[in-house]
UniProtKB/TrEMBL annotation:
<dbReference type="Pfam" id="PF00160">
    <property type="entry name" value="Pro_isomerase"/>
</dbReference>
<keyword id="KW-0812">Transmembrane</keyword>
<keyword id="KW-0472">Membrane</keyword>
<dbReference type="InterPro" id="IPR029000">
    <property type="entry name" value="Cyclophilin-like_dom_sf"/>
</dbReference>
<protein>
    <recommendedName>
        <fullName>peptidylprolyl isomerase</fullName>
        <ecNumber>5.2.1.8</ecNumber>
    </recommendedName>
</protein>
<keyword id="KW-0413">Isomerase</keyword>
<feature type="domain" description="PPIase cyclophilin-type">
    <location>
        <begin position="66"/>
        <end position="224"/>
    </location>
</feature>
<keyword id="KW-1133">Transmembrane helix</keyword>
<feature type="transmembrane region" description="Helical">
    <location>
        <begin position="25"/>
        <end position="42"/>
    </location>
</feature>
<dbReference type="InterPro" id="IPR002130">
    <property type="entry name" value="Cyclophilin-type_PPIase_dom"/>
</dbReference>
<dbReference type="InterPro" id="IPR044666">
    <property type="entry name" value="Cyclophilin_A-like"/>
</dbReference>
<keyword id="KW-0697">Rotamase</keyword>
<dbReference type="GO" id="GO:0003755">
    <property type="term" value="F:peptidyl-prolyl cis-trans isomerase activity"/>
</dbReference>
Length: 252
């Protein structure tokens, strides 16, 4: 938090202390709501996911900059133009882009080269709630991401005991807001700190949930779900200073 932000917070809490008690909760709620919504929508990029079942919008997190810049790079290359959701698992994820088998088969053609993966970016604000955007990967020990595979969480509700167990197992600490999100709406917390989350759906979540319920054969939809990703909005004042650089962010 920058110095001017600290001053604003200090002034606000001084303001709270000097107002009648019955109004404090109301203004505190307004402050928290404004803080989190402004933080959410202040991210640099908003994108549109156009499918043959409807469209939805999502944002890319600026606090996972390498994954943000990677997907923008892949969009420019055409990777996500008329791509396919090739894995649909109800109450788990909807996944698209290149298949694991295709990626691994291509890498097998160059057995002397170590497969390249994008280094993980785990951030305490990024977690696997419903609508979260994540990067697919194989079982590499570094937990590096594939360059051309993504997924959205459609998850399920979890209980407090499960979250407590995961905190101990993974050495993480969920905020009260994150625990509430998981308990009330659901998600896939077991993926936290194992797969990188780098964005989330902000509009049209019902479209994604509808896709997740389509009939499938071995996780493949019986009717192909195609999609194209378009950059919908970019905030010019927050435009990243650098674009995706393979050498600086890749493991392998």
């Amino acid at each position: 938090m920058k110095n001017h932000d600290v001053k604003i917070v200090s002034l606000f809490f001084h303001f709270l202390q000097n107002m009648p008690t019955q109004f404090r909760f109301y203004w505190f709620f307004i402050y928290i709501f404004t803080f989190f919504t402004s933080t959410l929508f202040a991210q640099s990029y908003q994108l549109k996911f156009k499918t043959n079942y409807g469209n939805f919008d999502f944002i890319l997190y600026d606090f996972t900059p390498n994954h943000r810049d990677l997907i923008l790079h892949e969009i420019e290359k055409g990777t996500y133009r008329k791509a396919i959701f090739n894995r649909i698992v109800k109450d788990f994820v909807v996944q698209g882009g290149e298949l694991d088998d295709a990626i691994l088969a291509r890498e097998a053609d160059y057995p002397t080269e170590k497969p390249k993966r994008l280094a993980p970016e785990f951030h305490h604000r990024a977690y696997h709630k419903i609508g979260a955007l994540g990067a697919g990967r194989d079982d590499n020990p570094e937990k590096g991401s594939f360059f051309s595979q993504l997924y959205f969480v459609v998850g399920q509700k979890v209980n407090a005991a499960e979250l407590d167990k995961l905190e101990i197992l993974k050495g993480i600490r969920y905020s009260q807001a994150q625990r509430t999100e998981y308990l009330v709406n659901g998600g896939q917390p077991r993926l936290d700190n194992d797969y990188t989350v780098f964005g989330e759906v902000i509009k049209g979540l019902d479209v994604l949930m509808k896709i997740s319920t389509l009939s499938t054969e071995k996780t493949h939809s019986t009717k192909p779900v195609t999609f194209t990703i378009k950059v919908k909005k970019m905030l010019p004042k927050r435009k990243p200073k650098t674009r995706f650089s393979v050498g600086a962010t890749v493991i392998g």
